[in-house]
Amino acid sequence: MSNQDLFTNAVVYKSTTTPNRTFQCIIDHQDDEKYVILRLTPYDTTTNSEAIEDRWVLASTETEAYHSDIKNWYCSNTADAHKNIWRSPVCMGGGIIKVDHENKTVKTWGTSGGYGDPPLEIVEQILKTVYEPQGYQLDIKITDEVRELIKPKHRGYWAD
């Protein structure tokens, strides 16, 4: 699936616990990679403040090695679609996520050296909303692990 398809086909989920809160989960891998939690706010916040949507996005890709690069990957792939609708995303933290579709498990751990811990409640809400209805088992934690590993598939990787 191309990046364009990945972002165009990303489902927007409504929170079952918080009015006007929505989620997106954009992951393009089936192993362990870093992820970020991004918060989007709409450009127009003056109309009906009760109806203002609060969007949270969990984004993770196998092509980027650092949390800041994942945020940039998300921003560059959504810039046109978000123009005049959403302000630039704010990164609220990050960690590591492993998605195993064969065994139907999702696990998170770690933290971001640059952005810090992600909001655990938001990570839980996104993953429970997206994966529990499909029968996945979740193991959601935040630990003090900061991954420095760069893999050969990451953009900009070079071997010594």
Automatic annotation (TrEMBL):
Q: InterPro entries this protein is in? A: Janus (IPR007702), Janus_sf (IPR038596)
Q: Which UniProt keywords apply?
A: Differentiation, Sexual differentiation
Question: Which GO terms fall under biological process for this protein?
Answer: cell differentiation; sex differentiation
Q: Name one GO molecular function term.
A: protein histidine phosphatase activity
Question: Which function does this protein serve?
Answer: JanA and janB regulate somatic sex differentiation.
Question: Which cellular components does GO assign to this protein?
Answer: cytosol
The similarity comment for this entry is: Belongs to the janus family.
Q: Does the keyword Hydrolase apply?
A: no
Task: List, from the UniProt record, the residues annotated as the active site of this protein.
Answer: H67
Q: Its domain of life?
A: Eukaryota
Query: Know the name of this protein?
Result: Uncharacterized protein
Per UniProt, where does substrate bind?
Answer: K34
Species of origin: Polysphondylium violaceum
Any keyword Ion transport? Answer: no
Which parts form a coiled-coil structure per UniProt?
Answer: none
